[in-house]
Structure formats: structure tokens, C-alpha cells
Queue: 2 jobs
Job 1
Amino acid sequence: MADYDLILVGTGFASSFFLKAYLEVAPARARVLVLERGRHDSHDWQVRHRRNSSTVASTTFVNETAAKDWVFSIGFGGGSNCWTAGAPRFTPDDFRMESTYGVGRDWPIGYSDLEPYYQDAEELMAISGPDDSQSLFPRSRPYPQPPHQFSRPDALLKQAFPNTFFQQPTARARHATQGRPGCCGSMVCLLCPVDAKFTIENGCSHLYADPRVTLLVEARALTVETEGGVASGVSYEQDGVVKGASADLVVLGANALFNAHILLRSGFRHPLLGRRLNEQTAVDVRVDLDGLENVGGSTLITGTGYMFYDGPHRATRAAAYVSTLNHLSLRLERGRWRQRMYLTISFEALGLDENHVSFDPARPDLPVVVHAVNSPYVLRSLERIPVLLDELLGNLPVESLAIGRPTSNEAHIIGTTVMGDDPESSVLDRHLVYHGVHNLVVLGSGAFPTSTPTPPTLTLSALALWSAKGVLG
Amino acid sequence: MRGADGHADPENAPRLHTRRWFLGSLGALLAGSLGWWGVGREWSASIRSLVARRLYFLDLDPAGLDAFARDAMADPQLPFPKHMHVRRWFFSLYSRVPVRLFPLLPARDRLAGLEARVVQKYLLSTDFFLQGADESVTVRYRAYFDPYRRPCVNPFL
């Protein structure tokens, strides 16, 4: 059995950021094994095939709830291939929901603990963002890149909500960086034609070329092996053969479905393991404008609104996060081609114990995913969408609105390995170490005690850097 | 047809025969015409009709519209398979008649969505927005709008 200092499962944001921090402190003779279950579908391959992955993600798990989808991308770079590159921070109150509003759970760490790691993650991804959002997100340094340009409707929203409406912080480069060109507004960000959004391939490939690192693709982690309460290695399957490797440190960085499944398959039995699976809900809105042209927005998502985010309402109903979009979609009416805008309103979720990932010995390779219960906390906010829109759009010449149905997924899988200081009520400790197994780390948004309505990528990336610092010293 | 007593009605019989023949012929003519109108047409002809119908108030460069229709046929993101005769027939019909005239058509929303996609593709493939969306100027085809073949083509920045 090959022996390593570190075995890392997965090559997405969390794994890659942890690996970066690890390699910075690891000795020259360190040996790292990285297991990636998918292939390395390069950006060129993706553009040629017009898809993010050669693996069909829906075949890799059993979905027991037809009305709920779980969307993710398998392969080298994981979710970095299919994200739209929205990278806002969470707000300070997002980390203390229970103590502030009496709902959800507090995180074991606060905004100020994570702030330096937010900063580092933003610099790694060359995030473009506004510097006038200090009141919501105190920062120690400016954003690495200037913000994108508002559209004309955005500018009116900014007038109406100067302290709660900003340019979206994003990894869609405003200007060219060393590894990628600037965003040129093609507006198809799930797969950027010019590779302007940060991905693991265009931003972190050098980590995997490091001589200390052995990357195996199409190598699927099966179990974490333990001996006497210590993780001793990982068993994995490659080319139909089950193999094993041992290591001093084991880090799981797959998504929240697979991390929990690997642990359950390995025999870990914490009562909360796999539970509190949740995901935000969003609603898309089309707004036809009377005489106002939607032009000038320099990227797909330009504005983000926090006007319905924090406040006393959060004690009873979910916070909402507003995004304005600039799809290249026309209003097919004479003379009014561009008098239309799109909004997405995203709502936070609560992690309920009933929604879970489980291990079925009859189908050992497939996580069984159940999301049977929708929280009234979210439903109460969904009912208020017309009221929110009245308030939001009061400054715009709105002609008509079309409100879509709640989306069945947001491609943000949260919960299943929640973090906390109390081993009874959490699976991981504050540095994402499995309670009671000091050399087993579980990264990713599975650790989030609460979801918030904002995209989780920047936070899970910063959390990986925080975890590395806590574990490696 | 027979009379109330069961005998043939010599007066009505020839007239009914003529009516049957007439209705049958009309039906066959209609079916034949619709068949010719639909199945006989290529997708590209329907794409041309659809764009021209929807943008009737614009002066569209005919050669450019032909070129767009050919390029749209080759677009893997648009559903124009060569061998789907039934779908092609419906699309042909629809390309000339607005979908609002078919309130009960099951595929109404899908057809309306396809129309929007095709017409948007066309407009973004032309110089229309580069000319300030001036409806008095002839609209000329430039190159097929596909951000993966020609990225960074956004007239609204």
C-alpha cells in the first residue's frame, strides 16, 4: 500500500485551496495523493462539446425526491467548471443566526475569524468588486479588481438603495489577469467561451503539477480507513480495481453528497452525519420596462441587492438576495428590443434533520438523497415576492412582470457534515476536523451550519484556507 | 340514401353523390396542399418564413436571411432534425401563422419559445443593433450568433 503524507479527495475549490495552503508549508519531500473521480475535461474540451463534464452527474446518486434536483459537475476542477462566478462574502450576521434571530444555528467562527481568509481567497481568484460595501462586509484590503459596470436599470436601483445595492463581487475578471482574459460580456457564464472566469484549471493547475503531488483521475474514493480512532488511509477504485493508500492526513473535498456518503460507507455513525441537507431556493423574474433600455451591464450579473437580506424579519422568514442579470435576450416588440431586465431573488434555507444523504448497502456506490421537507421559513418568504418586487422596483418604469416558479436547484449543496464546537450537535469542529478523529478533515459547504441566500463558493474557499491554517499550524 | 319507405330516392341520389365527390375532392386537395406546404418544405424555408413574418416591419436583406437559415439549420442548440417530418410540418405551418391563432395547440409555448430563440438569433447575427436598431435601414446578416464560435459579440455593452 502506497504511503503519503496527505490524501486529498476531490479537485474543486475546497480541495485546491487546501492543497495550496498545504504545499506552502509542506517540506520538499512531502508526498500528496489527490483522487479525482471524474476525468480532466479541459476548457477546450468543454467548449468543443458545449458541456462542463463528460460524466453525467445525475447517474452518480439516487434521488428519492423527484421534485428536487441536485446539480453539480464532476471532473477536474469540480464546481469551478460550471459556476457562474458570483463571489460575495457572507455578512457578519450570517454567522450568528441563532443568537441574533433565534433560528438556525450559530457558526463556531465569526466573520472576523474568516476575514483574512476571505481576502486571500479573493486575491487567488482576482475578484472584481465594489469598495463601497464596507458597511455590510468590513474589509482589510480593497478588492483585487475594480467592479463591473452597472446597466442602466442597475444605476436606478443604486439611486434607490445606495447602501444595499452594489456591483456583484465576481470572479468574472473585469480586466485580464495572468491566466485569463477580461470578461467580454458573452453572457454564457456556465461555460465561459473565453475562459475569463476563475476555474481550478486556469488558476490552480500549477498545484497539481507540483512534483510533490500525484493526481489520479477517474479514481473514486470509496472509504476512509481508520485504526484506533485515527484515519489511516483511503480505499479507492480505479479501472475497476479497488486499491488503497495510507496517509498521515486525510482530507475529503468532494461535494456535500459524496463527502457524507464516503464517511457513512466507512462506518462513521455520528447521528447528524448526512443530515441537514439543504439548498437555497430562487425565483427568476422578467421585468418589461417602459422606455428604459437595459444596456451597459458589462457582465452577466451586475447588481446584487441586500435590501431584503438582514433585519428582524429574519426571525420568521428567510433572507432574500437579489441579483440583476443581463441575458442577451430580446423583447421582440418593435422599438422596445432591450426594454427588459431579469432578476433572480434567492432565499436562504434551513437545514432540517429530515433531509439527508444515506448509505444503502444494496447500492453501495450511490448516495441516496432525500429532500422531503420544505421549511415554512422559506415558504413564508416565497409568498412575499410580489411585495418585495413592489418595493424593489418602485424607482423603475415597470410595464409588466413575469414571476417564475421556484427553481428546483441552485447548484449549491449545503449541510450533511455541519461544523460546531459541540461534538453532540455537530459533525466537524471549527477547523473542519471530524470530531474525535484528529487527522480527518472534511471540507466544503457541507460544513455550513446555515446556508445564507448568497452563493457559497467564496466562503467555502476561505473556509478551506482557514481549515488548513488550523490543522497545519 | 333511401326514402321513408325504404326505396331509393331517385331525385336525391345523384345530388348526394356529387356532394360526396365534391367534399372528398376538397378534403384531398386540402390535405395535399397542407402536405405539400409542410412536408415538402425544408426547415430552412420555414426559418425564413418565420423570421420574415415576425419582423415584417423591417427590410431584411434576402440573401442574408437565406444564409442565416442555412446556418441556423447547422446549430446544434436549435431543434431542427432532418428526419422529423411531423415536427417539420408543424413548424412549417407555424412559421406562416402566428401561434396565438392556435390557443389549444399543445406545443404552443414550445413553439413560441422556439420562435423567440430563432428571431433573437437572427437579430443578433445582423447589423441591426450596431446601426442603433434603426427600423428604416436594411438589416444585413453579418455572421451567425454563437458565443462559442464568435465570442465577445454583445451590442449592448
Note: The interface with chain A takes residues 54, 57, 76-77, 116, 119-120, 123-124, 129, 133, 135, 147-148, 151-154, 156-157 of chain B (CB under 8 Å).
Job 2
Amino acid sequence: MNENRRQILEMLAAGKITADEAEQLLAALEPGTFATAGTFTGKIPVSDSSAESTVKTRAKYLRVLVEANEKGEPTTVNVRVPMQLLRAGVRLASLIPKQAHDQLDATLSKHGVPLTLSQIKPENLEELIDHLEDLTVDVDAKEEKAKVRVFCE
Amino acid sequence: MIPSFAILQVEATHFHMPRLWLPLFLLWIPVILLSPLILIVILGLCIAGRINPWRAIAVFWSILCNLPGTHVHVSAHDSKVLVRIL
């Protein structure tokens, strides 16, 4: 029995966790199962065997990569933003006064972006960020010779 | 964790700047010394803008503390800009 499994069973025996929680934790130790959402796949070594269990970890950064070729000259943009900074940035929207919200919403919808900023609330924030972790956007415009990748890591 | 260093590098056709390590932690000395004045200014601005000042401070502090790890690298033609916050 490996150390992680033993710890889980000890916690169950001590009544610190329920049988369901123990089952979830044991399942997370099994190879090929995923503990949390995210796109980066890390590996946790298992002490008593050569096998390694694969557990998904939370994405820490949002990466935007742009490769373009303008008039034969290569242009590259590589931006990495911490996910926590995105969380803080969304909270900043809650400080914007209502009048400014209305004006922003009107301008955004005028330009074809039907987004209501007032709907972005702190309680919806975690869900938004969690879904962002599963996001991967690949744009390959052959005519423009541009390639855009947006993903979490 | 508040940002302690920023790395800045700018390169252009006729301009080459070595990679600069900017010690941001040194900025905290004047900020701490001027903190009473800064607090009054923030309170005044928040009252004028009808924003909860404590919430505003919390949000800006959160943004500041989450800046480390930010990396921006733009390269076009003969120009290159690199900004990293550590």
C-alpha cells in the first residue's frame, strides 16, 4: 500500500473524512483520473510502484501567442498573464459606476459585442475562470499568414 | 506577494538597451513614507467617484499582489520589447 493511500484510509478511520470523500481521493490517485479542472497535465510519482498517476492541476497562467508575417517580416507576441490577476481584474469591473457600465454596454453592443458588464459579478467569477481554464483557441489564418493561440497552462 | 523586480528590455533598429532589472521593492520605501497622504488622496477620489474606498483599495492591492508572473514579449521587424514582472 502506498503512502497516499494509507493516509486517506487513516483519515477515514479517524473519521476526518467521509467514505464518499475517501472514495473520491482514492479515485484521484488512480492512473488516468482527473482531480481538478485545468489543461495542464502534471505527473505525481507513486512511491510503491513504477507507475505514475496523472492528475490535472489548476492552470496558473493564460497564454496568448501570436505569430504573424507582415510584409515578409515576422511579428510575434507572447503574453503570459497570471490567472489570479484575471480574477483581480474582473473584480475591478465591480468598481465601475453604473452610469459608466451602461455606456460601456451600449458601446460594446454597438460594435457587435453583446456583453453586459453588470452581469459579471464576484459570485460568477469562479465559474468564469474555471471555464476559461478549459479554453484553447487556435486561429490559423493562411491568407494573412497569422497564427493565434490562446490557452491556459 | 508584491512585485519585487521588473525586467525591461527594448530593442529597435538604431537603439539597443541592455536588459534592465528594476528593483521595484525600492519603490515601497517612498510609498510607505507617503502612505498617509496617498490614503487621503485615495479616500478623496473614492468619495468623489462614489466608490467604497476599502473595496477599491482591496481590489487594487489584489491586482498589485498578483502582478508577479506577468510576461509580455513583443517582437516585430527589428524591434523587440520584453517586460517581465517577478
Note: Residues 20 and 49 of chain B are 37 Å apart (CA to CA).
